[in-house]
Amino acid sequence: MPIPPGSGLRPRALALLLTLLPGTALAQGAPDTIALDEIAVAGASPPGPAFGVAAPPGSGPSVIEHPVGEVVTGIGRRDVIANRPATSVGQVLVNSPGVTMRQGNGPRDVVVSIRGNNARSTGVIKNMVVLEDGFVVTQPDGASRFDIADPRAYSRIDVFRGPQSPLFGNYATGGALAFRTRTGREIDGYEIGIDAGSFGTLNHYVTVGGASGPSEVSLFASDFRLNGFQDHASADTQTVNLLASYTPSPDNRFTLKVINNTLDADLAARSSLAQYRINPYQRGCASAATAAAGCTTFNLFRNGAFGATVPVTADEGAFGRTDRRTIIAGRWEHDIDADTTWRTQVGFDERNFDQPFYTSSSRGSYPSYNVLSDITHRGEMFGLPVVGYAAFSYSAIDNHIALYNRAPYGGPRLGALTSNQEASQSNLGGRARAEVALSEQWTGVLGVSAENTWLTGRTLTYAYSAAGTTRALAEIDRSFLNVAPELALVYRPDTAWAFRGRLAAGYATPAASALFVTPAGVPGNNTDLRTQTNLGFDLGVDWSPLPDLRLSLTGFYEFFRNEFVTQSPGAGLLSYTFNAPASEHRGIEAGAEWAFSPGWRAVAAYGLNDQVYTRYVEQLSAGSLTARFDRAGRLIPGVPAHQLLARIGYDQPSGPLKGLGAFVEAVYQDGFFLDNANLLRAPGYTIVNANIHYDTDLIGSYAKRLSLYVEMRNILDMTYIASAQPLANSISAVTGLQNGASVLATTTGSIFAGAPRSVIGGMKLAF
């Protein structure tokens, strides 16, 4: 973003930085922003301090905080977190254009998709990098989960859209999410709150924060419980989130970040589309022997190893998750001079899980750590104001996971060990970026990242029969070198308009876990996977014709090579990953916000996705027969074409009812195909929610502020699909012909229904 001339860039330092940058990349300008109080137009003002750093004015800048040329939506608290019972980040992130949601395996385990990337996942977040207060919370194998994220803790979430590897490195092919917790100064006291409502929803939370001299601390803790609207879907999860900083001198700042989350959840069965139509909420499914029509059952080996099977429901199989996630990280930020800031941060992240659901149970521990050191410099080159950024990063993870058959009855009993995996992954890379104010109206951006990934490990797979046990060994020793450039250009003819263009690349290497599941859905060798890469072009405009009206429109076109596609080969089998040789993602994103009258405010966020395979021949086998099918021109499964959020609300601005407000919102999501052949389609839906809230200062009371709210969700009681795992096509073992939609429609293990009509209310007291 432009900076005043004469700020004193040292030419040799910038020259060294620019030698790291290759020739070209295109641009995006002002961050698209949905919340008026959060909007920050790139190029209009200098960047602020780094994420979560409680520092006095004039502290060192961070390019990542307000990057020029990126498509970024900043989501604030108003109508999203502060005055409503937001139980998962999914209810927050739909406020960004281009973002779609899926229900994951747990109450807060939502699957976030940016521009259709990751839309096929049903649990782990892939194809994006997630940060919290500037610390990476995506593990080095590219996996993120939102069990750790209670929306109450956050003051803002920034959604970076499009390929982001030049800025965030490996796995940022779809974008990035940057969460910012509330600082001690923002809280300035303590708050207690409670949300309660339908289906046993209960959330107690407390926030404490303040600043004293050079120290600042904020602490958030919550206890969330849910009985669930489906059979066997209760859960409880506890979260602690700490952000603390210490500024012993104006040019030194230290930050500590701690997150701990525990989860104990029962999981309902994922049904087939046919079962969903009969019994969407899987009710009356306590026992397979007396199950109601449409109940999903899974066949478990009677002896836990081989031979005869017995059908069990989710209750009988005691499907569930017991997980723990702990993150401890620290950062030192040092201002070398008035224009140069150096930051170094180190983090430890351990994910421990015990997941006995469906026909297998996984137990494991994924300890990891990451190191990042970066430098930001503001100055001049050839008389032009420049912000330069360079970073070095290293991360590593050790995977230890054992996979067991499930045994029926008697709780989550384990059967025979089916595989034992040990693997390690490390990533070493560097990134550099320069933002140049070419004139008062034009800003250019040039960036690049280069990263090497190493994967080593082995899996022992066991098979059982009456004749005995056999063992197979699969080993990996792979390395990947990837480079991603970025070029951006922003034109601001006046304060009302910003035109932007961007060209950027992204890359995502396969994780070890994907290399050890075969297309048959069983443990084994899948080690031919390649790096997923994409090259994206963005063009957009931001327009503010009136102080209270903001419009944004972005068009994108991305070319993927070796795109990761994950799908289920059938009920009870493990999902596997393969490379689609070539595909194209294109679409439109639009955002609008209009405070059209005192107290009134309207918000809209829209995304259009058109994603197709352009080169992919799928091979299917059954018995002794094999057939090949050309999928070129087929839509990529799991990706809805249209997504829209529209909200209109009113808050009384003055008088005795000041603080009383209400809004109504609609969330629309289009249907999508479940298979590569585009034979079976999950239907779309529209959900309508309504909210009433009251927020007031308490004069003469010990408490400072009172907030009350009640919300009815899914007012029309729409039955809809909240999550659908893409399904593998199949052929007939007799004819070799591709099976039709009727076979796919009866394949279980795919669908979770969304919540029916529900009411949740709450209150919060600030002291």
Automatic annotation (TrEMBL):
Record flagged with keyword Oxidoreductase: no
Location, primary (coarse class): membrane
Subcellular location(s) per record: Cell outer membrane
Domain TonB-dependent receptor plug: residue ranges: 78-176
Protein's UniProt keywords contain Hydrolase: no
Annotated GO MF terms: siderophore uptake transmembrane transporter activity
A Pfam family reported for this protein in Swiss-Prot or TrEMBL: Plug
Membrane topology: Multi-pass membrane protein
InterPro entries: Beta-barrel_TonB, Beta-barrel_TonB_sf, Plug_dom, Plug_dom_sf, TonB-dep_rcpt-like
Transmembrane segments: none
Domain TonB-dependent receptor-like beta-barrel: 303-715
GO BP terms: siderophore transmembrane transport
Gene3D superfamilies found in the cross-reference section: TonB-dependent receptor, beta-barrel domain, TonB-dependent receptor, plug domain
GO cellular component, as recorded: cell outer membrane
Top-level division of the source organism's lineage: Bacteria
Keywords attached to this entry: Cell outer membrane, Membrane, Receptor, Signal, TonB box, Transmembrane, Transmembrane beta strand, Transport
Annotated signal peptide: 1-27
Record family assignment: Belongs to the TonB-dependent receptor family.
Record's protein name: TonB-dependent receptor
